[in-house]
Amino acid sequence: MFRTAFFIVSICCCSFYWCHGCLEEERTLLLQIKDSISYPGGSSLDEYWVGKNCCQWYRVDCNPSSSRVISIKLGSIREERLGLWYPNTSLFAAFKELEKLYLWGNHIGGWVMPQAFSEMQSLRELHLSSNNLSVSIDSLRCICELTTLRVLNLDMNRLNDHTIPKCLGNLSLLEELSLSGNELKGNLPGLCELRNIRELNLDFNNLDGRAVPPCLSNLSKLETLSLSGNDLGSYSSALTGICELTALRGLYLSENRLDDRGIPKCMGNLSLLEELYLLGNELKSPFSSLTGFCELRNLQNLNVANNSYVGSIPQCFGNMNSLRELHISYNQFTGANPSSIFQNLTNLMIISASDNQFNDSISFSTFANLSKLVHIDLSDNVRLEVEMEHPHWVPTFQLQSLFLSNCILNRRGGSGIPTFISTQQSLETLDLSHSFLKGTIPSWLLNNLTVSSLILGGNSLKGTFPQSTRRNNSMLNEFDVSDNFIYGELPSNIDTLFPNLIVFNMSKNKLQGTIPASISKLQTLRMLDLAENNLFGEMPHGLTRNNTSLEYLRLSNNKLQGNILSKFSNMTELVVLLLDSNGFTGTIASNILSSPSLKILDLSKNHLSGFIPSWLPLLMNLAILHLDWNFFNGPIPSEFCQMQNLHILDLSNNKISGSIPSCLPNISSWMKEISIDVDVLSEQVYLRVLYSLNSSYYVDVFHTRVTTILTTKGMTLTYEGLPLSLMTIIDFSMNQLTGNIPSQMGHLKALHSLNLSNNILSGPIPESFQNLESIESLDLSHNKIVGTIPPQMVQLYKLSAFNVSSNNLSGAIPNEKQFLTFNESSYTANPHLCGPPLQRSCSCNNSSQPRDNKGEEEEEDDSTILDSPLFFYLWVAIAYILGFWGFIALFANKNWRWKFFSTVDRCFDCSYLNLHMFGLYLKNFCCN
After folding, report:
1. Residue 276: CB partners within 8 Å, gap ≥ 6?
2. Contact at 8 Å (CB) between 372 and 346?
3. Half-sphere exposure of residue 618, counting CA atoms within 13 Å on the CB side?
4. Are 135 and 109 in contact (CB under 8 A)?
5. Angle at 764 between CA 761 and CA 769, to 5 degrees
6. What span, in angstroms and rounded, lies between the C-alpha atoms of 134 and 109?
7. Which of 80, 233, 792, 832 could form a disulfide with 810 if both were Cys (CB 3.0 to 4.6 A apart)?
8. Are 759 and 784 in contact (CB under 8 A)?
9. Helix boundaries (H) for 620-719
10. Tens-digit pLDDT profile for residues 497-532
11. Can you tell me the distance from the alpha carbon of 837 to that of 508, in angstroms, rounded to the nearest whole number?
């Protein structure tokens, strides 16, 4: 009977509520607010705010008993293209029971009818972050009328000292105030009158030590104080008053340039402190007994990462029995992690001590009894020995993540993969890269159903590809076993072994056989790196079809053959394609245009031929293009001048002819410095949440830094990440280019390296080269360039590699500034150049002037010497030898034929030059 009555009453109440809905007058007000926030365009609320019952509308909450609106949450609704929004405050004031108002991220520049704020006496929370309230100096004064307000958020509004109203102290009931991300510098008026304040956030302003008012110590109820991202280190006594805030539980002082003097000696007074963040400062040793730091027995989260701490970890850390998180990474701690520190820290969940200088040894048995541990990071302590097998121990914890890269693992235990890992059934991320591991990869490691990221690269692991006994249920997203000694073939059923792979890196191993076709069935695969193995055959056609998710494909330094891509290729997400140093043949097919996001294309060191496609500029995002060491012929397409993002263009070692396009200065990335993002897997972030405590998340992100090999300054170097994105290079060397060097090339002010050597270029060095203000390497050697070296080029102060040898230059060599650093090899085989560093003096007028009629007669004499019988018989002998072995090479092997013709070209050039120089020597010797 009772249940029946309760059910009837519930139905009646619910029916009343749903039938009654919200008040019609408030529904009308909401529609007016929607029209205002979307004026003069459409609104994203149109599809949500429909029907008569506004209490069911998106981001609207009502009081169940009165049906009045009590909460309006319209964060980030107005689009930036609509300009600033000036809300009519009277519309919000008409909601008599409104308690919470969220208007963040709506480009608010001020208010219409601001006096209506005085009528909003039910309002408890007001969130106005990420607006433009600095536009009007009076935009915040009206907020002082909200005397019942408990929470006020004004983050990121470009507010300065003049826009904060003095009447702020009128908000006597305020408990939370956030002003982070503004432009505050001086004292904050009215701040010290907020006696009920519990949370104060002033992060990332321009506050120096003098801007922290002494009266801050009067805020006796303050529990959380956040001052990170300011400049408190500029005033050593800035934090003295903080010691009076005995109710503090959270203190955040990161990134303030604080040194040891900035830590108050009375820190121990904060006996209730639970969280202390000091990361990113300049601290070295504030843990002395004078500071009272070691008295913080209730501390749960200590973060002092990214400072300059030296010496051993303070023993007093072991007295903080409540500690749950310890972050000391990126410092200069030495010695070992003393076991005595961790014995009593039974509440510890996170240990982060990477990137220090620990140089002793530590046994993992130290952590055996810390049953709550979920995260350990000791990586990048290159001299730290971590022993996991001796003495024998049994873990009581279940880790979620373990980072031990760049340490020395299990030296006493044979350097094998730690066996205790087999007991970790919650492990998600395991990084043991570059840790001197040996032996094979055990199958139990791949059978762990929770591991999503397994990184074992840079070790000495050997054996065939590790086999898993499970099928289809592997959670592996990232599998990196690069730079080891794994041999044999990749498994033909790799799609069933690891169906969820996103990152697969087996580069720098000894893999053989073909790339299995099943790898194309990995639907989530975004990065594939199989470079530097012994793989052969063709690239699986399915790998590049059907709109794959691949962003990064690297198959360099293998023995792959056939066409680069099949005619059905469709890789819409591709950003990086590296297929260099293989045996691919044919031409570059236009199906590569199906990858509009392509930024890096490296097809060098293959057997590609034909003309360089003029449609390549249709890849508008292309920044790095390597086509060197192939058999391309024909001219450089003038369409290349449309590639505005091109940073590196390498067409060297081909058979390209014609002249250099004069329109190259149209490429803006060579005219002004423009950085490019060449990292992949960063647009969509994969988070592995390891542990959460008071909104503090620890995440790991798949992140791949692109590396490439570049030749500049006469050296072959590997570039990675940011240096690569700022490097600008043109390399047209070892071709058959003719004509003058376009003077327009002197306008490439952002160019770092220019190599035009080993061509048939003529004419003078353009005087405009004096404008190559960023040039570091300039190679014009082995051409037919005439005239003098422009003396204005001494202004190129960044120039560190310069070569104009084997040309027909004349006159005096510039002898000041950067040119004083270049040796004789930069100028050899230019008979009419003179002055240091050459031994040839410029005292004779003929030696310092361009060739006149007499010079022409000397040239005729030179050619007469070369036409003598002696040189004729020498040429016959050379031709016979090359002809005989050439005949053998042509019938033997295609690669031999390619190498033979390259050798013939080099021998011819070298022989001609040497005979020419020898003839000059004989002539001078005989004449003298």
Report:
1. 251, 253, 296, 299, 301, 302, 303
2. yes
3. 10
4. yes
5. 100
6. 7
7. 832
8. no
9. none
10. 999 999 999 999 999 999 999 999 998 999 999 999
11. 45
* Mean pLDDT, rounded, of the chain: 84
In eight-state DSSP terms, residue 447 is T
Strand-pair category, 692-693 with 696-697: antiparallel
The C-alpha angle 235, 237, 239, rounded to 5 degrees, equals 105
Report the alpha-carbon distance of residue 510 to residue 498 in Å, rounded.
21
DSSP string, 308-346: --EESPPGGGGG-TT--EEE--SSEE-S---HHHHTT-T
Pull the structure tokens for residue 389. Answer: 């097998």
Whether the pTM exceeds 0.85: the reply is no
357 close to 332: Cβ distance less than 8 angstroms: yes
For residue 38, the tally of other CB atoms under 10 A from its CB is 18
Is residue 517 within 8 Å of 542, Cβ to Cβ? yes
Distance CA 329, CA 356 (A): 6
Six-digit token string for 222: 């303050």
E strand or H helix at 35: helix 24-38
C-alpha distance from residue 753 to each of 1, 68, 530, 675, 712 (Å): 91, 70, 30, 16, 6
CB atoms under 10 Å from CB of 761, counted, come to 22
* Of residues 366, 370, 327, 326, the one with CA closest to residue 345: 370
pLDDT in tens, 270-329: 999 999 999 999 999 878 766 788 889 999 999 999 999 998 888 888 889 999 999 999
* Backbone torsion region of residue 484, taken as left when φ is above 0, otherwise alpha when ψ lies between -120 and 50, otherwise beta: beta
The H or E element that residue 915 is part of is: helix 894-927
CA dihedral 451, 452, 458, 464 (to 10 degrees): 70
Tell me how far apart the alpha carbons of residues 643 and 617 are, in angstroms, rounded to a whole number.
5
Q: CA–CA separation, 6 vs 114, rounded Å?
A: 48
Tokens for 805?
Answer: 């040898």
Q: Are strands 777-779 and 801-803 parallel, antiparallel or unpaired?
A: parallel
Separation between Cα atoms, residue 101 and residue 29, nearest integer Å: 14
The radius of gyration of the chain from alpha carbons, rounded to an integer in Å, stands at: 36
Domain ranges of the chain: 621-851, 864-927
DSSP-assigned letters across all residues of 465-527? PPP-S--S----SEEE--SSEEEEPPPTTHHHHSTT-SEEE--SSEE-SPPPGGGGG-TT--E
Secondary structure of residue 730 in the 3-state scheme? strand
Strands 832-834 and 631-634 come out as unpaired
DSSP 867: T
Per-residue exposure over 649-662, b if at least 16 CB sit within 10 Å of its own CB, e if not: bbbbbbebeeebbb
Residue 366 Cα to chain centre, angstroms:
36
Biggest alpha carbon–alpha carbon distance for the chain: 133
Secondary structure (3-state) at 404 = coil
pLDDT at 125 over 70: yes
pLDDT tens by residue, 444-489: 898 888 999 999 999 999 999 887 666 667 889 999 999 999 999 9
Inter-residue contact 63 to 20 (CB < 8 Å): no
**CATH code given to domain 621-851:** 3.80.10.10
Tell me how far apart the alpha carbons of residues 829 and 741 are, in angstroms, rounded to a whole number. 20
- What residues pair up with 292 in beta bridges, in sequence order? none
First-to-final CA distance of the chain: 133
834: three-class secondary structure by DSSP: strand
The DSSP 8-state label assigned to residue 235 in this structure reads: S
How far is residue 862 from each of residues 850, 876, 920, measured CA to CA in Å?
17, 20, 6
Alpha helices per DSSP H over 596-717: none
Report CA dihedral (635, 639, 641, 644) to the nearest 10 degrees.
Answer: -140
Contacts 24+ apart (CB under 8 A), 824-832: 826/802, 829/805, 829/913, 829/917, 830/804, 830/805, 830/806, 831/920, 832/808
